[in-house]
Amino acid sequence: MIEVRNISKSFGEEQILTDISLTFERGKTNLIIGQSGSGKTVLLKSVAGIHEIDKGEIVFGKEVYSAMSHKERQKIRKEIGMVFQGGALFDSYTVYENVIFPLRMFSTLSKKEMTERVEFCLDRVNLHQVEDLYPSEISGGMQKRVAIARAIVLNPKYLFFDEPNSGLDPKTAIVIDNLIKELTIDFNTVTIINTHDMNSVIEIGDNIAFIYKGKKWWTGNNKEILISNNKELNDFVFATELMRSIKK
Amino acid sequence: MNTFYHIGKYLLFLTKVFKRPQKRNIFIQNIFFEIEKLGINSIVIVFIISVFMGAVITLQTAYNIELSFVPLYLVGLGTRDSMFLEFSSTIVALILAGKVGANIASEIGTMKIREQIEALDMMGVNSESYLVLPKIIAAVFTFPLLTLFSMFIGIFGGYLAVYFTDAIPIDDFVYGLHYYFIPFYITYSLIKVVIFAFIIATIPAYQAYFIRGGALEIGKASTKAVVYSSILILFFNVVLTQILLS
Fold first, then answer.
1. Cross-strand pairs, A4
2. pTM, two decimal places
3. Which of A67, A128, A165, B182 could bridge A197 with an S-S bond, Cβ 3.0-4.6 Å?
4. Which ipTM did the prediction report?
5. How far is CA A88 from the centre of its chain?
């Protein structure tokens, strides 16, 4: 479990997050939703430790991340797998080299064991025969799956996804959503997904937190979101004709 | 005030760069990769520039010595000392600041805006050390070798110019090359180029590491990297010359 307690974050004069408290459960897909500029990416990156928070606490299990030394944080980071919005694959490395990278940096496995682990992870995300290709030679959906394979290669306890479906067609987006759901259950991870894809919200939203103007505005799940009377939430979720028809 | 802010930030950046590498074999592998990218891939440009500059220095000196009492061997001596003292270190460093500096800035800048550096940090990798330290070591190791190469090729260029134009007798040129040779000039040149190599590897990396925004910013960072590196090279050229030759 990850607990976020009363965190605030600003960049210069601009207040991005204000007094947010949330709990992200293990074995469930925890979604952070909100409009562009609402602060959800900053929230995710603050929880991931990329941004330093101004106030509050972030607790991984029983350990207060925000109070840890640099060395302790490095240790926790090795338990986190993160998939960035654009995949963040290393352009000059092949798919195989990208996925094996964390193993080469941090594991003591033999070369053979590392290769087996990479093959397992690529197989787990349904990628075959692409090991020797460079990221620019594969599709956006495949790049996302490579990024997921890289994120799970060290057997993480925590999985973070920043807009995993951005730039993907709806069919591929469903594949990625299902994959995230399966991995969360299989690896029993605390999975946090930052998204504004309503299809993901309905499909895999075990826990949902709606961030509005940098504040926690609403929490619930994918069933409760459809019947909520929260005005700002409804304006966001049912902004399209399709979603309004689903509600009806 | 802004200058002091950047000096402080640059020094803090360097403290992270010089942290112990996390995995020695990967670090060594990266150094060899950078030696190829920054050093070996610069051999051709250094060769072309050095051969032509050596030839031009020789011809200009020869055509400007019209007074009969000036011995012709001074053309060879002038070419040698120009190459050894200034051209093969400072001018080659300025050219490398353009080629290698822009390359480093665009590589790290692209990694920054594509979140690859955040991905490294997220994995627990010290991105500053992982990305920049191999470049510093590669540059500090290979640029002095390129300088020695440039000295040799520059003099060879001068020799070719004399051979093909008959500007002065070739024996006078060769005599001048040997005349009153001061080995410290090579040491002086190599000391300078080690400092220049450090500037060329770190200033573009610093400029690119902290960029925010999109592709346009990479271009701006590359330009700034080349301009600031060049200014610092010229500044340290004066400082080191005063210290080493006075």
1. A22, A58
2. 0.88
3. A165
4. 0.85
5. 13
